[in-house]
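Slide 14.
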Amino acid sequence: MRPYELFIGLRYTRAKRRNHFISFISLISMLGMALGVAALIVVLSVMNGFQKEIRARILGVAPHLKISSAGSDRLDGWQLVLQAAARHPHVAAAAPFVAGQGMVSFEQSVQGVMVRGILPQDEGKVVDMSGKIKAGSLQALQEGGFGIVLGSDLAHALNAQLGDKVLVITPQGQITPAGMMPRLKQFRVVGIFEIGMAPYDNALALIHLGDAQKLYQMGEAASGISARLHDLDLAPRVAIELERDLPRDTYIKDWTREHANYFRAVQIEKRMMFIILSLIVAVAAFNIVSTLVMAVTDKRADIAILRTLGASPASIMKIFIVQGAMIGVIGSLLGVGGGILLALNIDTVVPFIERMLGTHFLAKDVYYISELPSDLHRDDVLVVGGFSFLISLLATLYPSWRASRTQPAEALRYE
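Slide 15: predicted structure.
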């Protein structure tokens, strides 16, 4: 047979109470617990989605490893460094690059840009540009052709289209009789790309490596070597191993250090949101306390009768722990189910709400990601479900202890 404490506790949970206010508070406690659990699961899933989306977008256009000179912005003899990096078993591809700052001018518009010189046939192996070229082609970058590929927002700000000729201005000047003059070179727009992240779409321009070397007076040197790994999570270890094989004057920076601030910020936000939204579950737990305190007062006569029949104080505690735990379990299960359902359909629910309100929550010109992503993790669901059950269980201890202290004679005096 089932323990009688469990039987009576479950019966108290199902029975219709004389005091309907207690039933109402119980319902509110369940709904509060469900709301808190669902909110926690959805928020954690969205934060996971942001982290995954940011990493995918950043590493889609940024290399896993970047090798440069430790003392200057020039890497002479980059061919030997490239060969040494490509020989590493975990390196999938490597390519040289030239990086510099400049300004792009077209008609009456001027925009500051980061100019990146690349080898189109090799760069595609290091960064994933597939599906991101909206017009033209990356392969249209030919040495000596002085073609340029602009980010979509940059091209829009300049009002430049395919075939237009834009003027690139670099801070590296040349001495003339009139004084120091900036270097100017005309480039033809041969492509437009869209990454989906404002820093790249607003301020990145791609040109051929040879053209960049001429523009920035690099000679045969490059700014560095970018590399892509088979497993990006091994980047810190591969960086340490490559440092032993490369010359001492080279500096290696992996993506975990290059973009550490982005991922650290998302991780901190995830933890803070967990703490803040846990207060909703805590409020629901306080409701469980008040529900059980009123239930104990309402059942004083029943407790006294059980005590006279031989029930121990521990048994009385177990009865009300069962009753309170059932409220927490039902609320947690409802919250877990609702949270999972909402997290898996966030891409449908959010656009519907945006259409209803006539607004867009994440403006592309403000946020890195313009759509709300979601990535549901089983571990998060288990942690949230376990936390909510634990806090609801702790909430039952005081009312149950108070019920166990009930004296039969005193409780039955006026019955």
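Speaker note: The chain has 16 helices and ten strands.
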